Amino acid sequence: MSDTSTPDGLPGSQLCKASRANLTDEERARRKEAAMRAAGTWREETSRSDAEMRVLFPRYPAADGSDDDDVSAWRISYAPSDTAGIAAALEVYGMVVVDVLTSDEADATAADLLADASAQANPAKATAALDFNDPTTWESRNWPKPKSKFLFGSPAFTQLAFAMRTHPAIYEVFRGLYGGEEKLWASIDNWGVMRGTRNLRMRNEETGEVEDGVERPQWRTSLGPHWDCNPHRIVEIDRAEGHAQRYQGLVALVDCPITTGTFACVPGSSAYLDTWVSEHFRDGKAGLANRSVRPKASDPMAAYMQPIPLRKGQMVIWHFELLHANVPNTSSNMRLIQFIRMMPAWDAEQRAMSRSKDRHSPPKIWKRYPEIADHVRTTYSLSSLQLRLTGFLPWSDDDDDDDPPVEPSTAAAADCCALNAETA
Ligand SMILES: O=C(O)CCC(=O)C(=O)O
């Protein structure tokens, strides 16, 4: 009789789907490891010294030449036209900081983000329009989706959000990253907000009095180390399907020192992905699904996480294969960002046919929000280049005769659209 018992001694059939669904990741991993040890298919994670780990996971350098481990130092950054510098940094660190927006553009976009949030807040609950300088307005009821990780429930659909995601400097960076490929799509992605949590001037909800020095630990959220892809799928399937390398990105709309919460990553971890996969088992059927994956909390690589403070207007771009996270906001200021990235249109189209779909690609988003698509296309006066970058015009169509006029409604959008028109 064959032994169908699990490492827990339970007959396999009793470890039903429902009970498996209730297991924590840690417990599931422990059971898998035990099963693999029993089957002789378990490979020990290689143990390495700190010196070896520091070679694999180098620190992304500080801008002023100070200690690279100093988490308060701003980081080196590149001009959008420095294609070689950006590529070299990505090769070594798997990430790079680029100066993409002017201070005025970042200010205008930050104001737009807050106005958009107030416009989307539930009118039955909201009591104030959001004000960056007034924490009394930051209460959860004033946000569109207070329980979501970045306080919004849908992508950023304002005109300025489109001007920024098709910004000439950002297009230049991504064209360089994709070897001069011009036929790119911008992701239709989200705003991101992390509220200040410490030393706030807030209104006491019971007495109505305004009090200083208020703490909001419940707002102090952060994302643990993760990939927004499945490393096993990348190595075992995506590479064989010939997909392009993908990059993620976000733009800081305000200064984001480590205290306001900022992006964090393990520099070098993208180049290490194949080794990591070879040392970790797949998690059953879900093991190849197109989904976000977290390493175990005890994974030695996680100890090499580095926060990357960003100045207003800077963008951090990272390989999809880079282990990343963010650090919580422990300051009295808001962290405001816009997630922006670009992808080769051919690759996104190919992914749409496979199980490696990109959920922020224009066709996916426009299928989900058809009315917003109509509104954006017909009222935002996007240039022909912007229409192509956002999936409204096919890249194969070279006939620009029926381009809509460029008549943006805000000053910052006007600048961006004018620049875009020049490069169209
Ligand atoms: O907030 C950040 O800096 C990173 C966000 C992130 O990790 C994600 O959206 O996957």
Number of contiguous helices: 14
H and E order: HHHHEHHHEEEEHEEHEEEEEHHHHH
Mean pLDDT: 86
Major sheet: 5 strands, antiparallel
Tell how many strands the DSSP assignment holds: 12
Shape: globular
Placed side by side, the strands forming the largest sheet appear as 1-9-6-11-3
SS-based class: alpha+beta
* Helix share bin: 25-40%
State the CATH architecture.
Answer: Sandwich
CATH fold annotation: Jelly Rolls
Straight-line distance between termini = 71 Å
Ligand inventory reads:
2-oxoglutaric acid
Poorly predicted tracts of residues:
1-18, 399-424
Content of β-strand: 5-15%
Biased composition (Basic and acidic residues): 23-35
Region (Disordered): 1-47, 396-415
Biased composition (Acidic residues): 396-405
InterPro entries: Phytyl_CoA_dOase-like
Describe the structure.
This is Phytanoyl-CoA dioxygenase. Residues 1-47, 396-415 are annotated as: Disordered. This protein has 424 residues and is α+β, with helices and mostly antiparallel strands. The chain has a single domain (41-371), classed as Sandwich (Jelly Rolls), CATH 2.60.120.620. It contains 14 helices and twelve strands. It has helices at 17-21, 25-39, 50-56, 83-93, 103-120, 159-165, 168-177, 231-238, 273-278, 345-353, 362-368, 370-379, 384-389, 411-423; strands at residues 95-99, 184-186, 191-194, 200-203, 210-214, 247-252, 263-265, 306-307, 314-319, 324-326, 335-339, 342-344. Strands 1-9-6-11-3 form a five-stranded antiparallel β-sheet. Strands 8-7-10 form a three-stranded antiparallel β-sheet, with no helix packed on it. A two-stranded antiparallel sheet has the order 2-12. A hairpin with a 6-residue loop joins strand 4 (200-203) and strand 5. The longest helix has 18 residues, at 103-120. The radius of gyration is 23 Å and the shape is globular. Mean pLDDT is 86; it is low at 1-18 and 399-424. The structure holds 2-oxoglutaric acid (AKG). 2-oxoglutaric acid (AKG) binds next to strand 10.
